[in-house]
Write a structure and sequence with these properties.
This protein is mainly alpha-helical. The chain folds into 2 domains: 40 residues, no CATH class; 38 residues, no CATH class. 47% of the residues lie in helices and 0% in strands. The chain has 5 helices and no strands. The protein is elongated. It starts with a helix and ends in an 8-residue tail after the last helix. The relative contact order is 0.10.
Length: 104
């Protein structure tokens, strides 16, 4: 099947960004309204959109959240990490009890 022009542009940009970074670096995959088709289109060119090692939030996503909350001088801290703290609800509550300004 034919690839949509906007998807082709995203695929080419994604390939370019992957080529330009240091080995082992993580590149934010492209997005589209039809994300499933974009993943298929990337696959046609041998590109994977896997983000298993990606950060919880990309820098631009975090910036959007900061702007949306209207806060200034924001410091982010990861309070809970399931691979470190476990997967239970109890350990999660122990990490967040008494904290303020939390964003989930």
């Amino acid at each position: 099947s034919c690839i949509r022009p906007d998807h082709f542009t995203n695929v080419v940009d994604f390939a370019r960004r992957q080529h330009c970074v240091s080995p082992g670096s993580i590149v934010k995959p492209p997005t589209a309204q039809n994300q499933q088709q974009l993943a298929v289109d990337c696959g046609m060119y041998g590109l994977s959109m896997e983000t298993a090692n990606s950060p919880v939030l990309w820098a631009d996503e975090l910036q959007w959240i900061i702007e949306a909350t209207g806060k200034h001088n924001v410091t982010t801290t990861r309070l809970f990490k399931s691979s470190r703290d476990g997967f239970g609800y109890g350990p999660f509550l122990n990490k967040v009890v008494g904290k303020s300004g939390l964003l989930f």
